UniProtKB/TrEMBL annotation:
<feature type="active site" description="Nucleophile">
    <location>
        <position position="160"/>
    </location>
</feature>
<protein>
    <recommendedName>
        <fullName>Thymidylate synthase</fullName>
        <ecNumber>2.1.1.45</ecNumber>
    </recommendedName>
</protein>
<feature type="domain" description="Thymidylate synthase/dCMP hydroxymethylase">
    <location>
        <begin position="2"/>
        <end position="283"/>
    </location>
</feature>
<keyword id="KW-0545">Nucleotide biosynthesis</keyword>
<dbReference type="InterPro" id="IPR036926">
    <property type="entry name" value="Thymidate_synth/dCMP_Mease_sf"/>
</dbReference>
<feature type="binding site" description="in other chain">
    <location>
        <begin position="221"/>
        <end position="223"/>
    </location>
    <ligand>
        <name>dUMP</name>
    </ligand>
</feature>
<dbReference type="GO" id="GO:0005829">
    <property type="term" value="C:cytosol"/>
</dbReference>
<comment type="similarity">
    <text>Belongs to the thymidylate synthase family. Bacterial-type ThyA subfamily.</text>
</comment>
<keyword id="KW-0808">Transferase</keyword>
<dbReference type="GO" id="GO:0004799">
    <property type="term" value="F:thymidylate synthase activity"/>
</dbReference>
<dbReference type="InterPro" id="IPR023451">
    <property type="entry name" value="Thymidate_synth/dCMP_Mease_dom"/>
</dbReference>
<dbReference type="InterPro" id="IPR000398">
    <property type="entry name" value="Thymidylate_synthase"/>
</dbReference>
<dbReference type="InterPro" id="IPR045097">
    <property type="entry name" value="Thymidate_synth/dCMP_Mease"/>
</dbReference>
<dbReference type="Pfam" id="PF00303">
    <property type="entry name" value="Thymidylat_synt"/>
</dbReference>
<comment type="function">
    <text>Catalyzes the reductive methylation of 2'-deoxyuridine-5'-monophosphate (dUMP) to 2'-deoxythymidine-5'-monophosphate (dTMP) while utilizing 5,10-methylenetetrahydrofolate (mTHF) as the methyl donor and reductant in the reaction, yielding dihydrofolate (DHF) as a by-product. This enzymatic reaction provides an intracellular de novo source of dTMP, an essential precursor for DNA biosynthesis.</text>
</comment>
<comment type="pathway">
    <text>Pyrimidine metabolism; dTTP biosynthesis.</text>
</comment>
<feature type="binding site" description="in other chain">
    <location>
        <position position="22"/>
    </location>
    <ligand>
        <name>dUMP</name>
    </ligand>
</feature>
Length: 283
């Protein structure tokens, strides 16, 4: 929690104003932040200085792991977070590749579960990683990437947290996740939860202990219409102790994640938080 609040404060103290063409808004911006979550110690990084919708965050990462490319599928899992990007952005609405209502196009899991090969066909990057890790192999390139510049024109948004690199040391699994662009008041709330859950889940289904997750953020920003709420409300609050996350131990394979896992398989214990803050969202 401290590392999150420190980053927010750093943006306010040292950030520079940058015009963003896509959203038409200015963002107070810093470059480079490194956050660490110790999954082995159960340090679940849930923001306590406002109500944080952790179920929505877990639904997003489950949808990515399932290879979803449609906001309706994300809603069925329990999150509306893709509705706006799929259905309210004029550039995407006028894109000839958009397949209709709720389509997100070729991004996130739609790439990671079926990465197009230059010589034809696809690779299921996640399945390959799970297979390797399950037999104790780390080939030093266990990288789940959602980043495919050749598909950007066929997607509603480029992936923000675009790479997840798993490593095995003995029987402990580590994760390095990289994010190119980060909406600190809204997105990062979710992204911290997602990095933690990704390591915990993959460790569980591949039969390893979870170690640390390292989260690298390149462009960390606060939109101009979010600044006052962050500076004058959220940062004035004292954080509470971190809660803990429990994952159903019956989740044992990628197939389980793809077929029957729901948000009921995740519980958060001891979550004490301040009042919600409704930050404006930029489409
Ligand atoms: N500008 C922007 N920021 C983001 O964080 C973001 C995008 N766009 N587009 C793609 C995804 C969608 N994500 C989202 C979208 C909406 C919320 C949001 O509205 N959160 C509210 C309510 C959450 C709820 O009720 O489930 C929040 O208070 O956290 C958060 C993350 C993260 N990403
Ligand atoms: O997981 C996510 C997804 C998106 N974001 C934020 C970061 C930016 O504010 C926007 C994306 O805009 P770009 O113009 O494509 O950078 O969404 C996030 O923080 N976390």
């Amino acid at each position: 929690m401290k590392q999150y609040l420190d980053l927010c404060q750093r943006i306010i103290n040292d950030g520079e104003w940058v015009n963003n063409e896509r959203t038409g808004k200015r963002c107070l911006t810093v470059i480079n932040a490194d956050l660490t979550y110790d999954v082995s110690k159960g340090e679940f990084p849930l923001v306590t200085t406002r109500k944080s919708y952790w179920k929505s965050a877990i639904a997003e990462i489950l949808g990515y792991l399932r290879g979803y490319d449609n906001a309706a599928d994300f809603r069925a899992l329990g999150t509306k977070t893709w509705d706006a990007n799929a259905n309210q952005n004029d550039v995407w609405l006028n894109n000839p590749y958009r397949k209709g209502e709720d389509d997100m196009g070729l991004c996130y899991g739609a790439i990671g579960r079926a990465f197009p090969k230059p010589d034809g066909g696809h690779i299921d990057l996640l399945q390959q990683i799970i297979d390797d890790l399950s037999r104790g192999v780390d080939n030093r390139g266990e990288i789940l990437t959602f980043y495919h510049p050749g598909a950007f024109h066929m997607a509603c948004l480029r992936p923000c947290m675009y790479s997840h690199h798993f490593s095995l040391l003995g029987d402990t699994l580590y994760l390095n996740s990289t994010q190119r662009s980060c909406d600190v008041p809204l997105g990062l709330n979710f992204n911290m939860v997602q990095v933690y859950v990704l390591l915990a889940l993959v460790a569980q289904i591949t039969g390893h202990k979870a170690g640390q997750a390292f989260h690298k953020i390149v462009n960390a920003h606060i939109y101009e219409d979010q600044l006052e709420l962050m500076r004058d409300v959220q940062l004035k609050r004292e954080p509470y102790p971190l809660p803990t996350l429990k994952i159903n131990p019956e989740i044992k394979s990628l197939k389980d994640i793809e077929t029957w896992v729901t948000l009921d398989d995740f519980t958060v214990e001891g979550y004490q938080c301040h009042e919600p803050i409704a930050y404006p969202f930029s489409v």
